[in-house]
Design brief:
By secondary structure, the chain is of the alpha/beta class. It has helices at residues 29-38, 49-56, 74-82, 98-109, 158-165, 177-183, 187-202, and strands at 2-6, 21-26, 43-46, 62-65, 113-118, 130-132, 135-139. The chain has a single domain (2-150, 186-202), classed as 3-Layer(aba) Sandwich (Rossmann fold). The protein has a 7-stranded mixed beta sheet with strand order 3-2-1-4-5-7-6. The longest helix has 16 residues, at 187-202.
């Protein structure tokens, strides 16, 4: 099973995947080095994941995409517009429409299985998605529900997040470790979706 893991980061969603051939795409070379060290059997490509998807999607059986989420997040909107917090104000930015470009592309032009994951947005999604486990999902796979009570991010330290995600970054000299860990999809959710997808392909 050939898998394309887009916006790979440090590989939270991929941590518990087994017996699959993975190509990971990450635009930040320093982060890509960490991913490659953590998952030496994966092919790691430093590139723009959005462009790579368009050019290579038909080479894979399953595609996982986790595009950047800050421009869609409820948290950013709440502290930037709704909340009266002088210390937390942020400026308005355009929602990044590459998210919806990928959803529509995969839905209409791709014949394999796909999952696009993002934060639950502060607005009504332009393409209807499925809310599950503190995320929103767009997919052509009818995987069963998976629930988590909390992502454990509120007040989380690098140490607590490393324990929660199962990824240790102590030996790496890399910036914003806490942000990288917070951006990880929970490995148990990644495994849940991958195991179900593999079962569909085996059928």
């Amino acid at each position: 099973m050939k898998v394309l893991n887009l916006y790979a980061g440090i590989g939270g969603n991929r941590l518990l995947w087994k017996d699959v051939d993975i190509t990971a795409v990450e635009i930040d070379a320093d982060i890509a080095k960490v991913y490659a060290d953590l998952f030496p059997k994966d092919e790691v490509i430093v590139a723009d994941a959005h462009k790579y998807l368009l050019q290579n999607m038909h080479n894979f059986d399953f595609i996982w995409s986790s595009p950047p989420c800050p421009s869609h997040s409820q948290l950013r909107y709440n502290i930037g517009f709704l909340a009266n917090r002088k210390y937390a104000k942020v400026k308005p930015i355009y929602p990044d429409m590459q998210l919806y470009e990928e959803i529509i592309l995969l839905d209409k032009w791709y014949k394999g299985f796909y999952v696009v994951e993002n934060t639950i947005p502060y607005y009504k999604p332009l393409v209807e998605g499925r809310k599950m486990a503190k995320h929103i999902w767009w997919s052509n796979i009818d995987f069963p529900d998976f629930d988590i009570k909390s992502r454990g991010h509120r007040g989380g330290t690098v140490e607590s997040l490393q324990k929660l995600k199962g990824i240790n970054l102590d030996k790496y000299k890399i910036k914003e470790k806490r942000k990288l860990l917070r951006n990880c999809v929970e490995p148990t959710i990644g495994k849940h979706i991958m195991d179900y997808t593999k079962g569909q392909i085996d059928i």
